[in-house]
Every structure is written in C-alpha cells, then in structure tokens.
Amino acid sequence: MTAEGNDKSSEEPGFTFSDKRRVDPNTGEVRPEADAQSASAGADSASTADPNAEQAADASDLGVDIPADASGLEDVEPEAEPEPGSDAAGYLADLKRINAEYAAYRMRADRERERAALGGTIKAVEALIPVLDEVKLARDNGDVSGPFETHVNKLVESLNKLGVEQYGEVGDEFDPNIHEALMQQPSDEVENPTLFLVMQPGYRIGERIIRAARVGVQQPED
C-alpha cells in the first residue's frame, strides 16, 4: 500500500516557480528581460499619448512633408478664374450651364406640381357642386338644422381649407366675368347693374372660376 501511494505521488505534477523580479537578488543587476519589457511599455505609452505619431511616420515614409504649424492653411486664397479658351474654362462653362438648366427644371417641376394639385381640387369641387346646390336650397327653406347642420358646416370648412370660396350675394355689382345673368329687369333704384337674385352661388379658387354664379340682374333705367 505504501509503495503504491509513493508511485501515485511521484506521478503528480510538481509545483513550478517563475521568478519575474526585475533585479537579480544574487547579483543586484537589472535583468535583460526587464529592460526589453520596459522599452516595449514605453513605446506603447508613447503611441497612446500621441495617436498621430504613427500617421506622421507613415507620411514621412511616403515623402510627404507635414508642416508643424498648419494654421496658415486656412488663409489659402482660391485659384483665379481659368484662362479663356482652356479646357478648365470649358468645363466651368459646362458646369454653369448644367446648374442653370437644373434650376429651370426645378421651377418647371414645381409649377407642374402646383397645377396638378389645383386641377385635382377643381375636379373634386365640380363633383360636389350639385350637393352644395341642394344644401343651399335646404338652407333657404330652413331645413338645415341639428346634426345635419353640423355635417354641412364641416363640409364648408373643408372646402375653405382647400381655398374654395363661395361667392354671389344679393346687392353685389354684376360682373360678367364671374356672374352668369339668367334674368334681367330694369330698375330705377340702381345706378349700376346689380344682383337682385342669386339662383346658384358661384365657386372659385383664387382667380380661377370653377362655376360662375347664376343670378338675376337689375339694370338701371335709361
């Protein structure tokens, strides 16, 4: 039993010790390995302190001179206009022409976009005009009240947000550009042609007439 125990203990790995002291305790001198480690640590700290050191070294290897003071680089004046007739002058002229064409294209595209949006709004209002005429008749007869009146007001507000304006009131001066006279009668009470009846109001967006107001006109007597 004792022999077997001794054999097992001899097979187990023994304890090893690595002396990493920088100074040799026997001679009192600094070990060469410690000097190498110190030099490596110093190089690492130097590169960490100056992150541009490696880039500067690479630039020096490529033959590029980096000035110590680069503050004067901001005061560099732009190059003068290229000489007329040179390739650079031709390229500059082409660039200016392309910029002008692009600016004109953007303006044209914006106008087309606005025109398309206006056309869509006009089509929507034209489809709603019969409904608006019925609403006007209901209001004239006093039939717009309660929840129905709330919906009518919301419809009118939505049209106003789109820039749609309803026009044509009794007493307005007649304008053949925006009014359609369906009835005329003489009157000694007016000095200019005046609306005395609005059969159907007109609708417009800005200066664009969607439908002229259909009216009755009083003409001054001769």
TrEMBL record:
Localization (cell): Cytoplasm
Keywords from the UniProt entry: Chaperone, Cytoplasm, Stress response
GO biological process: protein folding
Highest taxon, organism lineage: Bacteria
Biological function: Participates actively in the response to hyperosmotic and heat shock by preventing the aggregation of stress-denatured proteins, in association with DnaK and GrpE. It is the nucleotide exchange factor for DnaK and may function as a thermosensor. Unfolded proteins bind initially to DnaJ; upon interaction with the DnaJ-bound protein, DnaK hydrolyzes its bound ATP, resulting in the formation of a stable complex. GrpE releases ADP from DnaK; ATP binding to DnaK triggers the release of the substrate protein, thus completing the reaction cycle.
Region (Disordered) residue spans: 1-92
Organism whose genome encodes this protein: Brevibacterium linens
Taxonomy of the source species: Bacteria, Bacillati, Actinomycetota, Actinomycetes, Micrococcales
Major localization listed first in the record, in broad terms: cytoplasm
PANTHER family referenced in this protein's UniProt entry, alphabetically: GRPE PROTEIN, GRPE PROTEIN HOMOLOG, MITOCHONDRIAL
Gene it is expressed from: grpE
PROSITE patterns, A to Z: GRPE
Residue stretches of biased makeup (Basic and acidic residues): 1-11, 18-34
Name this protein carries in UniProt: Protein GrpE
